[in-house]
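Q: What would this chain look like folded?
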Amino acid sequence: MTAPFEQVDMSEQDIAQTLTEAKAVLPQAVFEKIEIIVRAYSTLLKVLEDKDISLARLRKILFGPTSEKSRQVLGLHTTGDPARLTCGGLACPHGSPDPKTSGKPKARRPPPPGHGRNGQAAYSGAATEKVPHHRLKPGQCCPGCRKGKIYDQRNRPGILVRVMGQPPLAATIYELQKLRCNLCGEIFEADPPAGVGRDKYDETAASMIALFRYGGGFPWNRLHKLQGGIGIPLPPSTQWEIVRDAAKRLEPAFEELQRAAAQGKLIHNDDTPMKILAWMGKRREATLREAANGRAPEDPKPDRTGIFTSGIVSSLKDRRIALFFTGLKHAGENLKALLAKRNPGLRSPIQMCDALARNVPQNFKTILANCLAHGRRQFVDQAPNFPRECKHILDVLGSVYKNDAIAKKRELSDAQRLKFHQDRSGPQMEKLRAWMQTQITDKKIEPNSGMGEAIAYMLKHWEKLTLFLNKAGAPLDNNICERALKKAILHRKNSLFYKTDNGAHVGDLYMSLIHTCDLNGVDPFDYLTQLQRHAKELRAHPDQWMPWNYRPATTTLTGATPRSPPPR
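A: My prediction, written as structure tokens:
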């Protein structure tokens, strides 16, 4: 029989000291494996100290959640009538299956629209080439009946979509003829073809590298290996130099995006952890010394060790703007700096965020709304321990989201949507509030339990969580900002960190431009390319070169129509 483990109490400092001593005597490869095991074990012990931890929640923490849908959370399966549920074939407290419907085969749902093969319209970036018939021409005698004449069906051509592979960055070698005078020795070199510049890297190269790096999360080394494997080398240092130099030309567009976003009537914000090596470890002391001499970023905070990427999504009448800011500032501080550019004559914007105080801008009034999805998620975590209570709450919140989907489908105005929610969602939410208060006052739920804390969170922030019932245009949740932050999270997952504040700023610039294009149905590759090719015009009139209006300016200057935007 295996002897029980001996319990040893060690602080984080003790663990760090032990690892330091082990590193001095162990081979590097062995030490790295041991360090990973120790760190993972330490993290696991911290998680297990939570009094409300369950096996399901521990599995979700370690491996990530699969879904937060009610059926997945509660382990329920519908059997015809949504009110009748079964729990994986076991005795279910939520109801029993209907004998009239349980034996009948379920009707197959029609496939949702948009699934299947992509049609011609989906290939907005493809070149179109008209191909005449290989032997027939309009006006000739029909080779079939020998009596009629054939005519051109201009509006109904045959369609063949041919997709070909090519490198992310291609290269062409131009051998320019040189002529030399045999008497004076002067050399005459041919000019490059029309439209080919003397620079080695075209503007499209910077656009493509930026899309891979900051739009798709590709690390420098991964793209370097990919390009090297197809015979077009692109070293990581070269990639950085290309996007860094292009970012200087794109800076006016980033600044104009911030000015436009500050005027939004609805602003979402949140942040996620990030790493900048200049503010970590021994480098931090050097950066702080530089800050004292005025050479580092403004407003350094020596007592703050956290580094964040703040995501801000601003909604105007017919467009959305995404902004990213990486550094020592929290989301609320970055939002305050942005709102300083707001027109003083405008009304206070609606701000949607979670309930953390650091998301709220200090000394700047906003109409604050909190994310209903965050409140719902707390009940999702408690579903294994309180299935009946959580089912009741999730059902009510589910009906609210269904009402919101109906309002969007009907394309209701903000005022109409408010009235719709007040009529349909308002009574349900008031009943839910009274029910949750009863659970605590009648001591049906222990206040210190996980379920009690989830209910307390909802009741404490009720007015902000239900602002959509009192203010026209207020959203239900902050999901659009959390989806935007996935770009920063993808970058962190693949590239791990930024090296300096300048590197972080370049990443913020490209992510902001790229994701704003995504939100407005604009081709980001074409947009970045056109901005670089018209950098002079961009500096002079940045407001005419935003993702939603740059196409007319490009057509006026070049006479050519930019690439069509991708289908929404």
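The chain has 20 helices and nine strands.
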